[in-house]
Amino acid sequence: MDENTTTASESGRPVLVTGATGYVGGRLVPLLLSRGCRVRACARNPRRLENRPWAGHANVEIVAMDALDLASVDAAVAGCEVVYYLIHSMIAGGRGGFAEADRTAALNMAAVAAVRKVKRIIYLGGLGETEHPDLSEHLKSRHEVEEIFNQGAVPATCLRAAMILGAGSASFEMLRYLVERLPVMVTPRWVDTPCQPIAIRDVLGYLHGCLEAPETVGRTFDIGGPEVLSYRELIHIYAEVAGLMPRIIFPVPVLTPKLSSLWIHLVTPVPSTIARPLAEGLRIPVVCRNDRIREVLPRDLQSARETMRVALDREPQAEQDACDLPPETLLPPEWTACGDADYTGGTKLTLAFRIVLAAGIESVWEVVEAIGGDRGYYGNRLLWALRGALDAVVGGPGMKKKRRDNATLDADEVFHFWQVSRIHRPRRLVLASRMKVPGEALLVFQLRPLSGHTELVVQALFLSKGLPGLGYWYSLYPAHQWVFRTMLRNIARQCKAPVILGPEMVAAD
């Protein structure tokens, strides 16, 4: 093994992760930390990384880096063993401005890495035949960056990927919203173009594997999942996994990438500036031309269906605050993560009310934890009974199963149409609904000491499943407001505590 093939774990020098605020970079950092690496995570605005759970890890250093500023790049790279280059200009702009920015940033990194004697650059680029006449400007730019690193003085490992599957990926979120919101779709002709998507889990596995595998130095690999699929097939797989009716698809020849991106922006929360390069990239086949990576770094690749199944396990993702976890926590990479775009995770509908009581948190908690027992749901008994009866009619559990104990709840206890999902006495209780509804529902009680008083927030969180879910939520929205106001007033009465503030509607956390 020569000096250029020493592994990062052997050297003890930090690994630089550029683009740490991005989808892949934000998931790569905690993975590297979990494998014992020292990591230097960089971003143009490092404050965007301060709320990440791993920001407090003993082996991570957060630094500022503007890839277009040579001095900034030099300061970030100094002392690092390996550089992960995960920077791309995704925003569609006029006159090829993104390509010039990508070129300048790559040339800066290549020059600085040579001067600072970096052992290797690991770059994640894009699939697509370089000579294809319809290759998009964005894929051309990614190939140009790859060429810059391959011609540089520092050995490079270049990975080429197509669509990355997992919650938070712009490509996956675009697919999610299109399928969720459109039972019938008019699509461009590229809906039948072959693509080889790859799970984010496998992308991260390859990125870390290259770090420790000397035989990957100076080589370029195509990486993809175990299947070649069209976008039409991905739509059908998503609908099946999500429990939706099969989608009807009509391809037409008149939808250009620009028109497609505007249509995607209208139907989904994905901005058209991001949707356009994604749509352009789907015009040509993006399939692995070789599978050499499987010989060098063998792994059991995750199928599209398996990846979607994990990504769509939305209830456990919604139960926790992804930004409020211990530094060593390593969540499934297919889940939403702290720092993901606002539109990540599908349609989440919330309604929250709060009240501030002149009482201690323990006494308020005692009343909250008794919910569903002899005290019922603090008002509206007839309404709750009616809801339970309707649920039983459509095959749900209804109100038959009673609580085991009227005072305390156990983890995972099931009563009526609820299951205790999380309980952290005396601050947080999460009840997951087991009703037959077009989506997943959570009822969250959050308590917080507040200057000698206690703030209680009750929040309904609904993870809608398609258009029926939206109709269900909004049809019951006025009733839910009345129920929550009544519930909080009666909790206050049961506590025998003066009301300092509320009940009032608040923005959900």
**What structural class do you assign from the helix and strand content?**
alpha/beta
Mean pLDDT: 90
Q: Give the strand tally.
A: 20
Summed up, the helix count is 16
**Unreliable stretches:** 1-6, 91-95
* Radius of gyration using CA atoms only: 26 Å
Major sheet: size, sense and barrel closure?
7 strands, parallel
Q: What helical percentage do the residues reach?
A: 25-40%
Account of the protein in words:
It is a single chain. This protein is 36% helix and 21% strand. The chain has 509 residues and is an alpha/beta fold. The protein has helices at 8-11, 23-34, 70-77, 97-115, 137-151, 170-181, 200-212, 231-241, 257-267, 272-281, 292-296, 304-311, 314-318, 361-369, 381-393, 466-495; strands at residues 15-17, 39-43, 60-64, 82-85, 120-126, 156-161, 164-165, 184-187, 194-195, 198-199, 220-222, 229-230, 248-251, 348-357, 414-415, 418-424, 428-433, 439-450, 453-464, 499-506. The chain has 16 helices and 20 strands. The N and C termini lie far apart (52 Å). Strands 3-2-1-4-5-6-11 form a 7-stranded parallel beta sheet, sandwiched between helices. Residues 1-6 and 91-95 have low confidence and may be disordered. A hairpin with a 5-residue loop joins strand 17 (428-433) and strand 18.
Secondary structure layout:
Layout lengths: L7 H4 L3 E3 L5 H12 L4 E5 L16 E5 L5 H8 L4 E4 L11 H19 L4 E7 L10 H15 L4 E6 L2 E2 L4 H12 L2 E4 L6 E2 L2 E2 H13 L7 E3 L6 E2 H11 L6 E4 L5 H11 L4 H10 L10 H5 L7 H8 L2 H5 L29 E10 L3 H9 L11 H13 L20 E2 L2 E7 L3 E6 L5 E12 L2 E12 L1 H30 L3 E8 L3
Parallel strand pairs: 1-2, 1-4, 2-3, 4-5, 5-6, 6-11, 7-10, 8-13
Antiparallel strand pairs: 9-12, 14-19, 14-20, 15-16, 16-17, 17-18, 18-19
